[in-house]
Write a structure and sequence with these properties.
It is a single chain. The protein is globular, with a radius of gyration of 16 Å. The chain is α+β, with helices and mostly antiparallel strands. It has four helices and ten strands; from the N terminus they run βαβαβββββαβαββ. A hairpin with an 8-residue loop joins β5 (87-95) and β6. The longest helix has 12 residues, at 135-146.
Length: 218
Protein backbone atom coordinates (compact mmCIF):
# COMPACT_ATOMS: atom_id res chain seq x y z
CA UNK A 1 0.00 0.00 0.00
CA UNK A 2 1.21 3.49 -0.81
CA UNK A 3 -0.12 6.66 0.81
CA UNK A 4 0.78 10.28 0.17
CA UNK A 5 0.11 13.77 1.50
CA UNK A 6 0.28 16.94 -0.58
CA UNK A 7 -0.51 20.57 0.22
CA UNK A 8 -1.70 21.72 -3.21
CA UNK A 9 -1.83 25.49 -2.61
CA UNK A 10 -4.84 25.40 -4.98
CA UNK A 11 -2.57 24.05 -7.72
CA UNK A 12 -0.40 27.16 -7.84
CA UNK A 13 3.38 27.27 -7.35
CA UNK A 14 4.66 30.30 -5.45
CA UNK A 15 3.99 33.55 -7.37
CA UNK A 16 2.23 31.71 -10.21
CA UNK A 17 -1.44 31.11 -11.09
CA UNK A 18 -3.27 27.83 -10.59
CA UNK A 19 -2.68 25.15 -13.23
CA UNK A 20 -5.26 22.42 -12.68
CA UNK A 21 -4.04 19.95 -15.30
CA UNK A 22 -0.49 20.09 -13.99
CA UNK A 23 -1.78 19.67 -10.44
CA UNK A 24 -3.82 16.61 -11.38
CA UNK A 25 -0.85 15.07 -13.24
CA UNK A 26 1.36 15.59 -10.19
CA UNK A 27 -1.13 13.89 -7.88
CA UNK A 28 -1.55 10.97 -10.28
CA UNK A 29 2.24 10.57 -10.60
CA UNK A 30 2.42 9.68 -6.90
CA UNK A 31 0.77 6.34 -7.65
CA UNK A 32 -0.80 6.29 -4.18
CA UNK A 33 -3.77 4.26 -2.98
CA UNK A 34 -4.74 7.01 -0.52
CA UNK A 35 -3.82 10.67 -1.01
CA UNK A 36 -4.41 13.37 1.61
CA UNK A 37 -4.73 16.80 -0.01
CA UNK A 38 -4.74 20.21 1.66
CA UNK A 39 -5.50 23.74 0.40
CA UNK A 40 -7.94 22.32 -2.11
CA UNK A 41 -10.37 24.59 -4.00
CA UNK A 42 -13.86 23.75 -5.18
CA UNK A 43 -15.57 26.23 -7.53
CA UNK A 44 -13.22 29.10 -6.66
CA UNK A 45 -12.39 31.93 -9.08
CA UNK A 46 -8.60 31.74 -8.61
CA UNK A 47 -8.53 28.09 -9.71
CA UNK A 48 -10.92 28.55 -12.64
CA UNK A 49 -14.00 27.22 -10.77
CA UNK A 50 -12.63 23.67 -10.87
CA UNK A 51 -13.43 20.85 -8.47
CA UNK A 52 -9.75 20.19 -7.81
CA UNK A 53 -10.23 17.03 -5.75
CA UNK A 54 -12.48 15.62 -8.45
CA UNK A 55 -9.99 16.46 -11.20
CA UNK A 56 -7.14 14.80 -9.31
CA UNK A 57 -9.27 11.74 -8.55
CA UNK A 58 -10.27 11.22 -12.19
CA UNK A 59 -6.67 11.53 -13.31
CA UNK A 60 -5.42 9.06 -10.67
CA UNK A 61 -8.27 6.54 -10.84
CA UNK A 62 -9.46 7.19 -7.30
CA UNK A 63 -12.60 8.46 -5.57
CA UNK A 64 -12.55 11.92 -3.98
CA UNK A 65 -13.95 12.96 -0.59
CA UNK A 66 -13.87 16.70 0.17
CA UNK A 67 -14.24 18.55 3.48
CA UNK A 68 -14.73 22.32 3.32
CA UNK A 69 -12.94 24.34 5.97
CA UNK A 70 -14.52 27.63 4.91
CA UNK A 71 -16.31 29.45 2.10
CA UNK A 72 -14.08 31.11 -0.47
CA UNK A 73 -15.63 33.71 -2.73
CA UNK A 74 -19.12 33.47 -4.23
CA UNK A 75 -20.17 29.84 -4.05
CA UNK A 76 -16.65 28.49 -3.58
CA UNK A 77 -15.22 26.25 -0.87
CA UNK A 78 -11.68 25.62 0.39
CA UNK A 79 -10.50 22.71 2.49
CA UNK A 80 -9.02 19.20 2.56
CA UNK A 81 -9.63 16.03 0.59
CA UNK A 82 -8.93 12.32 0.57
CA UNK A 83 -8.51 10.35 -2.65
CA UNK A 84 -9.08 6.63 -2.19
CA UNK A 85 -8.36 3.71 -4.50
CA UNK A 86 -10.72 1.23 -2.88
CA UNK A 87 -13.91 1.25 -0.80
CA UNK A 88 -14.83 3.98 1.66
CA UNK A 89 -16.97 2.74 4.53
CA UNK A 90 -17.67 6.10 6.18
CA UNK A 91 -16.35 9.65 6.47
CA UNK A 92 -16.58 12.42 9.05
CA UNK A 93 -15.34 16.01 9.31
CA UNK A 94 -13.98 17.41 12.58
CA UNK A 95 -13.83 21.17 13.04
CA UNK A 96 -10.65 22.00 14.92
CA UNK A 97 -10.41 24.53 17.78
CA UNK A 98 -8.82 27.92 17.23
CA UNK A 99 -9.46 31.60 16.68
CA UNK A 100 -7.62 31.94 13.38
CA UNK A 101 -8.51 30.65 9.93
CA UNK A 102 -11.02 27.77 10.22
CA UNK A 103 -9.37 24.36 10.06
CA UNK A 104 -10.80 20.84 9.74
CA UNK A 105 -9.73 17.21 9.71
CA UNK A 106 -11.33 14.73 7.30
CA UNK A 107 -11.60 11.18 8.70
CA UNK A 108 -12.43 8.08 6.64
CA UNK A 109 -12.59 4.36 7.19
CA UNK A 110 -11.41 2.72 3.99
CA UNK A 111 -10.59 -0.68 2.51
CA UNK A 112 -7.51 -0.56 0.30
CA UNK A 113 -5.60 -3.53 -1.11
CA UNK A 114 -7.61 -5.88 1.18
CA UNK A 115 -6.61 -3.85 4.26
CA UNK A 116 -9.10 -1.86 6.34
CA UNK A 117 -7.76 1.28 8.01
CA UNK A 118 -8.65 4.75 9.27
CA UNK A 119 -7.10 7.64 7.34
CA UNK A 120 -7.08 11.36 8.14
CA UNK A 121 -6.28 14.44 6.05
CA UNK A 122 -5.72 17.71 7.89
CA UNK A 123 -4.15 21.16 7.66
CA UNK A 124 -3.31 22.80 10.98
CA UNK A 125 -2.99 26.50 11.70
CA UNK A 126 0.22 28.26 10.80
CA UNK A 127 1.59 30.80 13.26
CA UNK A 128 0.85 34.37 12.16
CA UNK A 129 1.20 37.82 13.67
CA UNK A 130 3.32 36.71 16.59
CA UNK A 131 0.45 34.76 18.16
CA UNK A 132 1.14 31.44 19.89
CA UNK A 133 0.72 28.47 17.59
CA UNK A 134 -2.72 26.84 17.66
CA UNK A 135 -1.46 23.77 15.80
CA UNK A 136 -0.46 21.66 18.86
CA UNK A 137 -3.94 22.01 20.40
CA UNK A 138 -5.54 21.24 17.04
CA UNK A 139 -3.41 18.11 16.66
CA UNK A 140 -4.39 17.04 20.18
CA UNK A 141 -8.09 17.45 19.32
CA UNK A 142 -7.62 15.39 16.15
CA UNK A 143 -5.86 12.62 18.03
CA UNK A 144 -8.55 12.58 20.71
CA UNK A 145 -11.20 12.08 18.02
CA UNK A 146 -9.04 9.38 16.42
CA UNK A 147 -9.38 7.17 19.51
CA UNK A 148 -13.05 6.67 18.59
CA UNK A 149 -12.05 5.18 15.23
CA UNK A 150 -10.83 1.60 14.80
CA UNK A 151 -7.15 0.88 14.24
CA UNK A 152 -4.92 0.79 12.24
CA UNK A 153 -4.51 4.55 11.78
CA UNK A 154 -2.81 6.77 9.23
CA UNK A 155 -2.73 10.53 9.90
CA UNK A 156 -1.47 12.76 7.08
CA UNK A 157 -1.24 16.43 6.32
CA UNK A 158 0.39 19.81 6.61
CA UNK A 159 0.71 20.08 10.38
CA UNK A 160 2.68 23.34 10.28
CA UNK A 161 4.85 21.86 13.03
CA UNK A 162 8.47 20.82 13.09
CA UNK A 163 9.88 17.61 14.52
CA UNK A 164 10.72 18.89 18.00
CA UNK A 165 7.06 19.75 18.58
CA UNK A 166 5.14 17.17 16.58
CA UNK A 167 7.05 13.99 17.42
CA UNK A 168 6.35 13.97 21.18
CA UNK A 169 2.64 14.58 20.55
CA UNK A 170 2.43 11.75 18.03
CA UNK A 171 4.44 9.36 20.18
CA UNK A 172 2.25 10.01 23.23
CA UNK A 173 -0.77 9.05 21.11
CA UNK A 174 0.94 5.84 19.98
CA UNK A 175 1.70 6.94 16.41
CA UNK A 176 5.02 6.71 14.61
CA UNK A 177 6.05 9.36 12.10
CA UNK A 178 7.22 7.92 8.79
CA UNK A 179 10.82 8.88 7.98
CA UNK A 180 11.08 11.67 5.42
CA UNK A 181 13.15 14.57 4.21
CA UNK A 182 12.13 18.26 4.14
CA UNK A 183 9.04 19.26 2.17
CA UNK A 184 9.00 23.08 2.14
CA UNK A 185 9.53 25.26 0.16
CA UNK A 186 9.13 23.31 -3.07
CA UNK A 187 11.98 25.03 -4.91
CA UNK A 188 14.61 24.07 -2.31
CA UNK A 189 13.09 22.26 0.69
CA UNK A 190 14.60 23.20 4.06
CA UNK A 191 11.98 22.21 6.64
CA UNK A 192 9.52 19.40 7.14
CA UNK A 193 6.00 20.51 8.05
CA UNK A 194 4.12 17.82 6.06
CA UNK A 195 3.77 14.54 7.95
CA UNK A 196 2.59 10.94 7.67
CA UNK A 197 2.15 9.07 10.96
CA UNK A 198 0.81 5.55 11.48
CA UNK A 199 -0.24 3.09 14.15
CA UNK A 200 -0.58 -0.61 13.47
CA UNK A 201 0.67 -0.51 9.88
CA UNK A 202 4.30 -1.48 10.33
CA UNK A 203 7.40 0.45 9.38
CA UNK A 204 7.50 2.70 6.35
CA UNK A 205 9.73 5.27 4.73
CA UNK A 206 8.71 8.22 2.59
CA UNK A 207 10.24 9.85 -0.44
CA UNK A 208 9.78 13.53 -1.36
CA UNK A 209 9.37 13.79 -5.14
CA UNK A 210 10.68 16.88 -6.90
CA UNK A 211 7.31 18.27 -7.96
CA UNK A 212 6.76 22.02 -8.39
CA UNK A 213 2.99 22.39 -8.83
CA UNK A 214 2.64 23.88 -5.33
CA UNK A 215 4.81 25.69 -2.81
CA UNK A 216 5.13 22.35 -0.94
CA UNK A 217 6.45 19.02 -2.17
CA UNK A 218 4.44 15.85 -1.53
Amino acid sequence: MRVATYNLRHGAPARRPAANRAMARSVASLGADVVALQEVDRRVVRSWFADQAGLAARRSGTVAHFAAARPFGPGGRYGNALLVRGRTLRTSTLRLPGSGEPRVALFARVVVADAELTVVSTHLQNRTGGRPSEAPAQLAALLDELTDWPRPWCVMGDLNLRADTVLPILEEAGLTAVRSGPTFPATAPRVRIDWIATQGLGDGEAVVPDLRTSDHRP
